[in-house]
Amino acid sequence: MRYLLDTADLAAIRRFCDIFPVAGVTSNPSIVKKEGKIDFFAHMNEIRSIIGPGKPLHIQVTALDTEGMIRDADTLLTKVDKEVYVKVPVTMEGIRAIKRLKAQGVHVTGTAIYSSQQGFLAMEAGADCIAPYFNRMENMGLDPDGIIAALAEMIRLYQYPTEILAASFKNAGQVDRAFLAGAQTATMDPSILEGVLTQPHITNAVAAFDADWKSVFGECTLAEL
Predict the structure, then answer these.
(1) Which candidate, 98, 117, 209, 218, has a CA 20 to 30 Å from the CA of 39?
(2) pLDDT tens, 141-178?
(3) What is the pLDDT of residue 134?
(4) Rounded average pLDDT per 10-residue block, the chain, 225 residues
């Protein structure tokens, strides 16, 4: 299991990379919108400096046609670095772009996946990662667990090198289900991870331990005994 942060908030990335075992960062135009009209490439380079050169940074193209996607990808590789995972929506134009980018040796993530067949096509086109949208599928009455399981089984059966990078979560329970269904990685808003460790029953248990210790030893910690 690998956890990625689905945000472009620099302060959040700094904070949560220090706390959690974060494997990388993803973004998309909707996430970038939350940051306002930033100096886009300077911002992405700052994210790279925070997470380091060894972790994947996924950045999405904005063009809707194949030629535009290729130009966007070239710009990302030039203005950020050659290790960027270029996120390409799995559409008719996107599949063609994925094939061409993989022929050039570019890291590619097929995104906006709502069906197993979409994922299968992206895998066959050579995508390094595929991003099924868990919560969005569930809201549409689809079966995200089954779709991810089908993708994972196809990867297992035919030894595709593609990884499932599950995305679009509203809570930690959905993240758990994605991993159990076969996703190797999941990207989420940092608040989901924070919420896992700050629930009242956890903080109450820790407070009780603290009170019991202090009732015997006062403010003296183990290191001070």
Answers:
(1) 98
(2) 999 999 999 999 999 999 999 999 999 999 999 999 99
(3) 98
(4) 97 98 97 97 98 97 98 98 98 98 98 98 98 98 98 98 98 98 98 96 97 97 95
Secondary structure class of 161 (helix, strand, coil): coil
Residue with tokens 């969005």: 136
CA distance 76 to 74: 5
Cβ-Cβ contacts under 8 Å for 2 (sequence gap 6 or more): 23, 24, 184, 185, 186
CA distances from 118 to 136, 171, 203, 209 (A): 15, 24, 42, 50
pLDDT tens digits, 10-35: 999 999 999 999 999 999 999 999 99
Among residues 87, 99, 102, 170, which one is catalytic? 87
pLDDT of residue 153: 98
Q: Is 87 a catalytic residue?
A: yes
Using CA atoms, how far apart are residues 54 and 37, in angstroms rounded to an integer? Answer: 28
DSSP code of residue 189: -
- Cα dihedral sign for 27, 193, 190, 51? negative
